[in-house]
Amino acid sequence: MAAKSTTGTTWNVYDANTMSAKEIYGRVLRELASKNDKIVGVTADLEKSTNIGIFGKEFPDRMFNVGIAEQNLFGVAAGLAKVGFIPFASTFAVFAALRGVEQVRTDICYQNLPVKIIATHGGLSFGQAGTTHHCTEDIAIMKAFPNMTVIVPADGAETGKAVEACLDIPGPVYIRVGRGFEPPFHQDDNFNFEIGKGELVNDGTDVTIITCGIGVLQAKFAAEELKNVDGISARVINIHTIKPIDKEIIMKAVKETRRIVTLEEHNVIGGLGDSVAAVIAESGKGCAFTKMGLQDEFSVVGYPEDLYSHYRMDSSGIAESVREIMGREFEADEDWSDEV
Amino acid sequence: MAKLSIDELKAKAKELRTLIIDTTVWAGSGHYGGALSSADILTALYFRYLNLDPANPDWEDRDRFILSKGHSGLGYIPCLHLKGYFPVDDLKNFNHFMSPFGMHPDCHKVKGCDASTGSLGHGLPMGLGMALGARLLKKPFKTVVLLGDGECDEGSNYEAMMAAAHYKTDNLIAIVDRNQLMIDGFTEDVMSLEPFADKWKAFNWDVIECDGHNMEELCAALDKAWAANSGKPTVIIAKTVKGKGVKFLENDVRSHYGAFDSAKAEEAKQDIANS
């Protein structure tokens, strides 16, 4: 099966079941670059680890490896963008969001340059590497920069579409993916992807789980469990674009389910949950609300699946959180006098 | 645009220095010390070397210039006026509410400005990106980055120095305004840079040292840098004096930033006229 892109590119559907998000990224980038000679790649000794090297192998003169030097990585990307290129800059999320972040903010976002940062090993996906290589702050940091678009795809197929779609954004984009061992959510690429538009994964009427990244598949499993075991009808929404966020799909869920659980592979401070909370608070509508993710703590070491379980990001942890919120009181009408 | 002769450049530098004093008064305050130390360098670049078209600031074949020491916007922005990018009246709003001109240049607001700077250590990496881009585009334009010497404490410069030599970008020229002073004192007291030229040489750059206030020497250095085809990037270490041209500011740590009253401004302009 092949997908028609907005730019007229046709790229093969890579087997989402055997290929990681970053591998699909490398291949899609190679494909896009064959049609667009303005695309260049920049990395900091992570050609192989981030898979930008798939592009680099085909276009060695358009690939710049600056060594282990992330400030220079983003400065060079900004300079290339200044003279007309569309640089894809790849490193681990923790280095993109922290080690070179002033260059991202001042050189790229302030100057509003079309640098596309594809950050791999986001969240807890580098499990055994520990906290220095985990990144649970990047969404908060990146979304705070004016001009920046922030995307956390659910899997490889969505990553491919995001990488292609980000070319239509005139300014900077941050796309966060995992290490490559995350199971795919989409079975094929036969789905719509639009930056800034959430995806309804599963309809439901009692509660809504709003999530992104690895949370999407787990939330879908949780919704099945909740339906079968508890008779709870859980809606699941994939908010792949954290910024700009899809207010409409969130408010529809608030109105129709009145209970919202957010889940992210990130600190609950500053990430998806806070973006959703802001939408709800600004609307003036009330609902029960819970943010799941790292509860303002540094992560422990372990295999990613053990970490997801430990931090209740797997399906059973999500289901447990949903059960808790189902029992929670909240102001459902205009009358506050009956409140404790 | 015609290239100025050495004598014309000297006169133009005086004009720029005088305008720096006026702009400081209009702005209320400013980083005049580093603006004055870089005035000859800026004048030589803008009136003899950089290939630019002020009527077409976005001309894609223009030479690129990055003021990495962004706090010298007080020298750079008046220089862009002298080059013809905008009228002098615009400078009278310098630092004022909603002005296009603040302490540090914003490329979206300052005509002729290629990069927004202010935070130190950002110019050389960006300049390297531009130089790599020029090569990929097969365009002959040069990229020139003006750094402060105190700025060279920033580690990001060394990341870019290493990569520029690795990628053999001989279309990249760095100039260091070596006025020996930073906010807290002399560079050698706060954080020693010496042996400074050796550092650049060790990173495999061609190094030219010159008197940054001697127009003949500066132009000889720039001639050489412009002709470079050795496969190495070039750095010009221009020995300068902070506050140059105004006696009561020269080589004084207090001339990094401040304000003038009108009497002092007149005295400064007299000094410049007599220099």
Please tell me about this protein's structure.
The complex is a heterodimer of chains A (340) and B (275). Chain A is α/β, with parallel strands linked by helices and 340 residues long. Chain A has two domains: 2-176, 3-Layer(aba) Sandwich (Rossmann fold), CATH 3.40.50.970; 199-326, 3-Layer(aba) Sandwich (Rossmann fold). Helices cover 38% and strands 19% of the residues of chain A. Chain A has helices at 21-35, 47-50, 53-58, 70-82, 93-99, 101-109, 138-143, 156-165, 215-230, 247-257, 272-283, 304-310, 315-326; strands at residues 2-4, 10-12, 39-43, 63-65, 86-92, 116-120, 149-151, 173-176, 199-202, 207-211, 234-238, 241-243, 259-267, 288-294. A seven-stranded mixed β-sheet of chain A has the order 4-3-5-6-8-7-12, sandwiched between helices. A five-stranded mixed β-sheet of chain A has the order 9-11-10-13-14, sandwiched between helices. Chain A has a two-stranded antiparallel sheet with strand order 1-2. In chain A, helix 9 (215-230) links the parallel strand 10 and strand 11 (234-238). In chain A, helix 9 (215-230) crosses helix 13. The longest helix of chain A is centred in the middle third of the chain and has 16 residues, at 215-230. Chain A is globular, with a radius of gyration of 20 Å. Chain B is 43% helix and 12% strand. In chain B, helix 1 crosses helix 3 (39-49), helix 1 (6-27) runs antiparallel to helix 11 (262-274) and helix 3 runs parallel beside helix 4 (73-83). In chain B, helix 7 links the parallel strand 2 and strand 3. Chain B has a single domain (6-274), classed as 3-Layer(aba) Sandwich (Rossmann fold), CATH 3.40.50. The longest helix of chain B is centred in the first third of the chain and has 22 residues, at 6-27. Chain B has 275 residues and is an alpha/beta fold. Chain B is built from eleven helices and seven strands. Chain B has helices at 6-27, 32-37, 39-49, 73-83, 88-91, 123-137, 155-166, 187-190, 196-202, 215-226, 262-274; strands spanning 64-67, 143-148, 172-178, 181-182, 185-186, 206-211, 234-239. Chain A binds chain B through residues 40, 61-62, 64, 66-67, 69, 71-72, 74-85, 87, 102-103, 106-107, 110-112, and chain B through 60, 64, 107-108, 114-116, 118-119, 121-122, 124-134, 136-137, 143, 155-156, 159-160, 162-163, 166-167.
